[in-house]
Amino acid sequence: MLSILFSFSGYCQNDSWFYLRARDTAFVPTFEKTGDFLYYSGNDKLLKAALKNYNIKIFKKTWKNAKKQNLKKTFFVVADNPALMTDLLQNASHLFEFGELIAEEDKKIFEPNDYGLTSTIGENLGAQVNLDYLDFLEVPKAWYYTTGSRDVIIGISDGSLDLEDKEFAGKSKSIRKSSLSNGHGMGVAEIAAGQGDNAYGVPGVCYDCSIYGTSYNHFSTLEQLVELSQLGVQVINCSWGLTRYYETAQQAIYEMLENGTVVVAVGHNEPFSTSHGKRVYYPAGYDKVIAVSSASHRYEHFTENILYLEEKKIYYIRDIRYYVGQTGGFKDNDTTQIPKLYPISISNLNKTIDIVGPGTGIFRYSKFKMEGKLEMTEFNQTSIVAPLVSGTIGLMFSLYPCLPAEEVETILKFTSTNIDDVEPNKPYAGMYGAGMLNTGRAVKMVFDMFAEKEPVKIENQRFSRWDFKLTSISEVVMQNQKFTEEATLNLTSKKRIVISENTDLRPNAKGKIHLKIDPTLKKECELQLRDPSILND
Predict the structure, then answer these.
(1) What are phi and psi of 428, to 5 degrees?
(2) Residues with active-site annotation
(3) Tens-place pLDDT, residues 456-507
(4) What strands, in cross-sheet order, belong to the sheet with 488-493?
(5) Where are the beta strands (DSSP E) in 394-475?
(6) Where are the beta strands (DSSP E) in 272-313?
(7) CB–CB of 345/380 below 8 Å?
(8) How far is 455 from 472, CA to CA, in rounded Å?
(9) How far apart are CA 50 and CA 350, in angstroms?
(10) What's the CA angle centered on 183, arms 182 and 184, to 5 degrees?
(11) Residue 299 gets which letter from DSSP?
(12) What is the model's pTM?
């Protein structure tokens, strides 16, 4: 079995990257490493002949981009020539059945050494678990620019943390004591900012960010959150909620945003079958809080995961990408028809939700820490979506520390994936926010706004509400984009604003479009890149 630690700097984008699918799950070629290259040490003569004319840097199994039936048959390869893929498919066809070249743009990734079973450019020395939810969110594309900063603090207003734990030690503080809550705080903190590249556990989204922990009470004043904001915390995660509104708490949210702090909170796990889109939880329901709920991310099409429930003699689907519910069934048990979601499998949705993210199949660090178990979440939970969003915001602030807090929500929504056209979601339109979080695109937008290399693209979304504000040093291009009805857009660029094809800027009397060119705009600070040479890419 191949077990070699690769360094990201050991190869470049001029190399050829591709995926190969083997015919047999048991196939694992053996290699020996000499210098920077791998040499096949197995006994298959045809494979040896096909490989001998190429310099190979990586040849390893990965779960990345593999469908369920191909999870243990997919290989990631880095070599000096793209002809290797064709050579293997033609001359070692008894071993390989499919290949796919990786586009140049998709090579702009970074993976730490604890990136789970989908790791490609680095060996996984951490937990042997499937982190496909981070692949789906394109987090490695965000890490290409930044893995976080100790100067950026993520507040965790949930259960307590073990400050000596390897994932939190040296970068965490407990501001207020909180209960253990069955490890809830540890699980949330790990997702948002658990330390990465430490050959242990799994990486959090903003894994080089700092963490401040606090309690989750004082619902009427949110004084524990205000305290974090006053201590310099840029984003606060609240994986909790209650149904009572307090005007004093709303004013505290405004105070924190003015102080540069963004609050992320959950719409809660109450099933739609009981909430019917009418139940609002706070602080998620307060104005200027980024309210999150859950959706599925795993299988690209419902036909990939049709299951059968023997006791009821029915077919059903589970964990289908972009569906806001986890499970659904078929009218007349006809699996050729588009499924309808079971409302009981949909976490609470309503008009206050801003964005959704993966809620199923997320690594449960609390189980790993407290019981030594490698477990993933089984149900569509919102508590674990919030730290995915909070970690994304941490990366955004890490990349550009001067990013206005009031523009964070705009960037998250501009870069989200619109899911309105997903047929099973249509009965719930208007209650799942702008769509699905995409961490990679959000961080890249921040980079594009201030790098002055490529235009900032606002595209592929349809907004009929919300107030958007964006200030960009770089040129801005809008394409395949709609701002209608009550949507408000206040967009300022130092350079051009280009209105391209299929763009509709026609709000009603309650909306407004304000586009401005300001040549005097200046960057408030510089981009803080993981690798400064990225500016030369």
Answers:
(1) -115, 15
(2) 158, 184, 383
(3) 999 999 999 999 999 999 999 999 999 999 999 999 999 999 999 999 999 9
(4) 467-472, 488-493, 512-517
(5) 456-463, 467-472
(6) 290-295, 306-309
(7) yes
(8) 10
(9) 57
(10) 95
(11) B
(12) 0.95
